[in-house]
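note to self — DONT lose this again. spent like an hour looking for the file last time. sequence + predicted structure for the chain T wanted, 77 res
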Amino acid sequence: MNARGFSIATFVALHIPATAHACAVCMGADDKTGGAINGAIFLLLGCIGGVLASLAGFAFYLIKRASVPMPPADATA
């Protein structure tokens, strides 16, 4: 490690706060922000679940379709 990297690492290590303070919502404030944040989290989880469910459904469709034999080719074409 060169001198510049060591000085940057020392600077960062010395300026990290000793304690971290949580926001008012995490500390249990009695306002509507906590409920809104929880609602947003569940909405995003629902969106992710919907996308994953649609991908799983499409994979199931492809697997089911791949197991069906192909129809015979039409000789008149």
